[in-house]
Specification:
Radius of gyration: 20 Å
Structural class: mainly beta
Number of helices: 0
């Protein structure tokens, strides 16, 4: 067995299906979001490569375990209605929300689990009415490194 430490640049795709908002313009009711989004991450990855060669194997095996610090940038859809806006709006509106933040990830090979914190900036006419605009959130995500 040979174990080799490494560090490298890291980038890939990330989705954050769960976001919990830590503050609000009015109160903390409905401060979570379960929704689809797509994000891009770029950062630094640290880990160990372990190489195994067992007598029964015709080829050796390689395992990689690592962790990373990442900058996250992405977009998602945001549904606005009377339950999550500071002013009453007519009906339901779907707008785009841009997310920026930082993530810490734990990886096995190219797949990773992430703990993310960030801020959402909604785009559109009704964006300023959203209760969680520019409020910090914590989320959990799944990512895939492209490297």
């Amino acid at each position: 067995v040979i174990s080799v430490p490494f560090q490298s640049a890291h980038y890939g795709a990330l989705t954050i299906p769960i976001k919990i908002y830590l503050a609000s313009k009015v109160d903390l009711d409905n401060n979570y979001v379960f929704d689809a989004n797509i994000n891009f991450m770029i950062g630094k990855k640290y880990g160990r490569m372990k190489y195994y060669y067992l007598p029964n194997d015709t080829e050796g095996r390689c395992y990689e375990k690592s962790w990373s610090f990442n900058f996250v940038l992405g977009a998602g859809k945001l549904d606005l209605d009377s339950t999550n806006t500071s002013e009453s709006i007519n009906g339901k509106h779907t707008i785009v929300s841009m997310s920026t933040g930082f993530a810490v990830g734990v990886h096995y090979k190219k797949a990773g689990l992430f703990l993310i914190t960030g801020i959402d900036t909604p785009m559109g006419i009704a964006a300023e009415k959203w209760n969680f605009a520019q409020c910090p959130w914590i989320g959990f995500g799944l990512g895939l490194g492209i490297e």
